[in-house]
Design brief:
- With 192 residues, this protein is mostly beta strands.
- The protein has one helix and 14 strands.
- It has a six-stranded antiparallel beta sheet with strand order 3-14-5-10-11-12, with helices on one face. The chain has a six-stranded antiparallel beta sheet with strand order 4-13-6-7-8-9, with no helix packed on it.
- It is globular.
Length: 192
């Protein structure tokens, strides 16, 4: 749901206003996995091959994915080795993890996501072809170098994997895509 009926989400504190939360942004899209809800961009992303990139968003899960399944926040590229880029929440045999993937190379970090709470989620592909995952501006982990990343250009999917699997169950808001690897300070600035 976008527009005037969408909730205003309080996400940062401005100490200049004695700790009152500033409302940043109006609106989020609500996804129901069983309805296979998703959003697809009208044009290709334009960030290809091993170019550094950052994708961030605010997410709120209705529940955690079942064991062995994933809730994709975003994806784009071609479903082939090292040609696909995605991020989301993965349930690895009962352990919920923040996940990013360049097809064939997963990077996961265990993290407890509480249903109904908002989290700022960011994935970075660095110039050294390493994946970084940030939750609420905190770096959870960095992968080893992936190697010959060759992400294909394609439309940007929000709330699913581009092969129509991994549908998200919850809300996604303020998705941003950058051609470049944002630093932790820059990700925190975007978050705030």
């Amino acid at each position: 749901v976008y527009g005037g009926n969408a909730p205003v989400l309080s996400r940062s504190v401005d100490v200049a206003k004695e700790g009152q939360a500033d409302a940043i942004g109006n609106g989020s899209a609500s996804f129901t996995a069983s309805n296979t809800d998703y959003i697809v961009s009208n044009s290709n992303v334009g960030i290809t091959k091993s170019s550094p990139r950052t994708v961030s968003s605010w997410i709120k899960l209705d529940d955690n994915p079942s064991s062995g399944s994933m809730y994709n926040i975003f994806s784009y590229g071609t479903a082939a080795t090292l040609q696909f880029f995605e991020g989301g929440i993965y349930n690895d045999s009962g352990t919920v993890k923040a996940q990013s993937n360049v097809w064939g190379t997963d990077h996961t970090v265990a993290y407890t996501f509480t249903s109904g709470e908002w989290y700022h989620y960011a994935v970075v592909l660095t110039s050294e072809t390493k994946l970084q995952i940030y939750v609420n501006g905190i770096l959870l982990g960095t992968s080893s170098a992936i190697g010959n990343v060759n992400t294909a250009d394609g439309v940007f999917n929000i709330g699913r994997r581009n092969n129509d699997t991994g549908h998200f169950n919850g809300d996604i808001s303020q998705v941003g895509v950058w051609a470049g690897a944002l630093t932790q300070a820059q990700i925190q600035s975007v978050m705030e």
